[in-house]
Structures are given as C-alpha cells and as structure tokens.
Amino acid sequence: MSEQMTTSSFLVRIYRVAEDDPDRLVGQVELLDGNGTSLSFADATELTSILHASCMRNSGRFKKTRLPKRA
Questions:
Q1: DSSP-H helix ranges across 1-71
Q2: pLDDT tens, the chain, 71 aa long
Q3: Has this prediction a pTM greater than 0.85?
Q4: Residue 67 counted as domain residue
Q5: Positive or negative torsion for Cα 28, 6, 63, 71
Q6: 68 assigned to some structural domain
Q7: Can you tell me the distance from the alpha carbon of 22 to that of 52, in angstroms, rounded to the nearest whole number?
C-alpha cells in the first residue's frame, strides 16, 4: 500500500471585512473533523492562528492515510 499525505478540512465563513483595512475581518471557522467544532475570529491573524493550530493538532503536521494499491 502507498501512503498519501492529507490535510485538515475547514469551512471558513467571512461575515464582514473592513473597507479601510482588509486584515480586519470577522467570521467563523468550522473544523470538518466530525465534532462540529466552530471557532470565531476577528482578524486575519486570528484566522491564521486557528488554522495553524488545528492543522498541528491533527497528528503533527499531516496525517498519513494508507491507500490500497491500484491494479
């Protein structure tokens, strides 16, 4: 069997972006991990931190998935 690197999946909802400062955005990240986890963010830095922390939480940087060999 071969291994394939897979990453975490997210649903990002952006509700508002400041016209004068695009780094100021408000929204919510839903982690598609089957637990229904949702986290709010108020700027681009918080969004980046949520995504980074969530990826690192899933078995280090990536999780490995074994795929069956193709015939």
A1: 44-57
A2: 444 445 678 899 999 998 998 889 999 999 887 788 899 999 999 999 998 888 777 644 444 445 555 55
A3: no
A4: no
A5: positive
A6: no
A7: 20
